Amino acid sequence: QLHVVESGGGSVQPGESLTLSCTASGFNLQSRDIGWFRQAPGKEREGVGCISSRTRGSATGRTYYTNSVKGRFTISVDDAKGQVYLQMNDLKSEDSAVYYCAASDAGPCALFGSHWHGPPNPDNWGQGTQVTVSS
What we know:
six-stranded mixed beta sheet, mainly beta, four-stranded antiparallel beta sheet
């Protein structure tokens, strides 16, 4: 059974860094698209970035980022550990949100990029981890 769990959230000051982890189990990490999403209070959930499947499709292993995090956030994968990371640098107050990772069959990350809203099946989502950026 597909399962993802986020970790690594916390409270930091503006300009600091934080790395979130998404631990995957029950599926082949390489064959799936993995997305990072966030939701701030009173706002809709938005795509932060995603990495396309590394074994299927035409854009294997390519990463996509929403404009507001380009150059600051980086998605990487450690297949041996079954983890996907979201390295967040130069954090800003507007980055404060609950961050989620989600897994999908290969395709939507390359198709929609950072505009991907994530898989429709709630079982493919983690429970989220809080990131607070405040001075």
